[in-house]
Amino acid sequence: MQLIFEYRQILLEGVGVTVSLALLSLILSVICGLAGAFAKLSHAPGIRRAGNIYTTFVRSVPDLVLMMLIFYGGQLLLNDLGRITGLWGYVDVNQFMAGVLTLGFIFGAYMAETFRGAILAIPRGQMEAAMSVGMTPRQIFRIVTWPQMVRHALPSFTNNWLVLIKSTALVSVIGLHDLVWNAFAAGRSTHKLFTFMIAVLVIYLVITGISDLLLRWVDRRYSAGMKKA
After folding, report:
1. What single string gives the DSSP state of each residue in 21-48?
2. Could you give the domains of the chain?
3. Long-range contacts made by residues 162-165, C-beta under 8 angstroms, separation at least 24?
């Protein structure tokens, strides 16, 4: 414990990077997930096919491979496009941005399936009733679809979020100074790697435990009406 206390600053910095990475990736994954869900539910064959390709591709390629492709290949592609078109100069994709883009893109596919299933769980009659009273598509989504979609999606959403938190450890491979990278560096310098990995394990347990409590509260809030009924 004394050793962990001495290195508390570097560990806390790593926790800040990890939490920031997870939250930004979550926001991007929700955006990609909603877009993917509506694409897969679209009546247009081309849009529906694009949604299916997106989810199938992500679930077929290892997360680490995608991260390497975005971090190394994405930077090369952006710079080649900028050089060819002359629209921008050199673009440096740093490790943090690569991590956010990769995790957001990956978990967007899983969120798409979560949201698609949640939307399909809403009785079709409710949509038809909303349209019959003159609601616009935006009003239907805000008043009818969204509240019920959240309730149906929360169990799977919670699981995706907890897995996403664990997956943030992958960014240490591309050199981002997150919790795992900082703990590994401290462990190697002190020859107490096992001690620091135990500390990382405990910190991740605390983060996921707090997340689980918050999402349980959200679930109770959105399920209040159902329980009363």
Report:
1. HHHHHHHHHHHHHHHHHHHHT-SSHHHH
2. 2-228 (1.10.3720.10)
3. 162/208, 162/211, 162/212, 163/107, 164/22, 164/25, 164/26, 164/29, 164/103, 164/107, 165/18, 165/22, 165/204, 165/207, 165/208, 165/211
Q: Can you tell me the mean pLDDT for 134-141?
A: 82
Token reading at 7: 């290195």
| The residue to which tokens 């600053």 are assigned | 9
- pLDDT, tens digit, 9 for 90 and up, residues 191-229: 899 999 999 999 999 999 999 999 888 888 777 655 554
> In 10 A of CB 204, how many CB atoms?
19
